[in-house]
Amino acid sequence: MSKRIEVRDLNVYYGKFLAVEGVSLEIEPRSVTAFIGPSGCGKSTFLRTLNRMHEVIPGARVEGEVLIDGNNLYDPDVDPVLVRRQVGMVFQRPNPFPTMSIKENVLAGVKLNNRRISKTDADDLVEKSLRGANLWNEVKDRLDRPGSGLSGGQQQRLCIARAIAVSPEVILMDEPCSALDPISTLAIEDLIEELKLQYTIVIVTHNMQQASRVSDRTAFFNIAGTGKPGNLIEYADTTTIFSNPTVQATEDYVSGRFG
Amino acid sequence: MSTATTAIKAKQRPGDRVFSGSAVFAGSMILVTLAAVAVFLIVQSLPALIASHEDASILTDNFWNYVGPLLFGTVWAAALALLMAIPVSIGIALFISHYAPRRLASVLGYIVDLLAAVPSVVFGLWGIGVLAPAVQPVYSWLVDNFGWFPLFAGPVSGTGRTILTAAIVLAVMVLPIMTAICREVFLQTPVLHEEAALALGATRWEMIRTAVLPFGRSGIVSAAVLGLGRALGETMAVAMVLSASGAVTFKLLTSVNPSTIAANIALTFPEAYGMNVNVLIATGLILFIVTFVVNAIARWIVSRRKEFSGAN
Q: Looking at this predicted complex, what is its ipTM?
C-alpha cells in the first residue's frame, strides 16, 4: 500500500517568487516524517508539492522531480487528479463537507472516482474507514447527521477517515492538530501511530514535541530572511534532530532559542 | 437588596440612540409600506371579487373566471423563463467564478451587470423587432417536425410573438440578477472545501459538484426566487411582445396565447372605468399573493436542510 517518496532538487515558485529552494530528500514507506521549522519557511508549501495541491494556487509551479516509487509526479503525462487519489491530504483546519452527512463525507472520495458501489460495500467501507480513524464508536449511531455537527477533533478524524477511504499510498498532514485541543491532539497522534503501519505519512507541525512524539524522521526547514526562499537545513532521524543535530540552526530551533 | 440600589445603569450614548432609532425606523418602514400596499389592494379588490358581468363590463361571468387564465399565463410564462434562465445563469456564474481567467471574468461580470441596466421597454422592442422574426422560422420547423409533441402543437404563429418568445425575453431579463447572485455565492465557497475535494482527487467539475454547488444551493434558490419575482411582475416587455388572446393552453408556438396579469393590467387599465378598475386591482392582489407564496416556498426549500447548509 505505502510507497517511497524521493524528491530531487525541487524549487517551488509562486509566480516569480521562489518560495522553496533546492530540496532533496527521501521518505521511506510506512514511516512518519515530520517537517518542522519557523512560520513562512515553506514547509507547508513543500508538503503541497507532494500531491500537486500546490498548483491549485494560480501562478504556482515547481522545478525538479518528485518520484513516488520511481514515477515522477511532475511528468507532463501525469494527471494531477490521479496523483491526488494516490496521495491523500489532511488540512490544518478540519474541512468536512458541510452539506454532507458523516457517511457521505467518508464516501465522498470514493464516489468521485465514478465507481458504482453497492450499499453493503459502502456501509462496510464507511465502518472500516471510521474504525481506521478511531471515530466509529463515537459516530456509529449518527452516520446520517451532518459532519459539521461533530467536535473539531472528531471532524479532523472524519477528514482522516475520508482520506483513507480511497486507499491512498501516502497521507500528507498539514498541521492537523493546530486547531485542536490537547485531548483531540492526543487522539490524532495515537491514530498516526496506527496509520503508519499501512501508510507513508508526512506531517507538517509547529509543535516540536509532537514531531518528536510521532515521527521517525524529521526535516528542519528554515528561511534566511523575509523574501528569501525556504531551504531544507537538516534531515535525519528524529532522535538525532532533537538530541544531536549537526547544524547549529537546527539546534537553536529545537532547543527553543528562536522560532 | 443592595444590588437593586447600586445597579449599574447603562449609559445612553447619543450615537447609539441615533443609530438604533434610525435602524428601527428604516426597518419598520418596510412593514408600513407593505401594509399600505396590501390594505390598498384588499380594500379596492373586495367589491370586484363578488362582481358579475352587470357590474364590470370586462367580466364575462365572475372574477375568478377572469383572473384564472391570466394567472395561468403569468405562472406559465415565468416558469418557462426560469427553466431557461436557471441553467444558463448557473453556467455563466460558474464560468466567471471558477473557469474564466481573472481578467476575462471581470469583463464578463461587468457585461452581465450591464445587461441588468437595460430598460424593459428596450427588451420589449428587441423582442418584437429582432427576436420574434428570428425565431418564427424555428417555430415553423418545430411545428412541422415535432408537432406531435403537445407543447409544439400547431398551427404555428405567423408573427413569432408567442408565449415562448415572451418567456425567452423574460429569461434574458432575469438572467443578470440571477447570474450576479450565483456568482457571488460561488465565489464565497470556502477554499478549504474546494481543496478538500481536490485533495480527494476531484476533477474541476467534480470539485464544483461536491463543494461549490451544495454550498451555493441556498443562494441558487434565492437567485431563482428573485428572478421569478421579476418574471412574474414584468409588465412592459410581455405586454409588447406577447400577442395574447386570453386562452389557457400549454401550446408554446401558436398565435393563441394566455396573457399575464401584469401585462393585462398595463394594456387594459388606460380604458378601464368604474368597477373594471377594481377588477384589475384585484388581479394585482392575486399577483401579490402568488409572489408571496413563491417566496414562502423558496424559504421553506432553503430551511429544509438548514443543518446541512454549512452555516453551523
A: 0.88
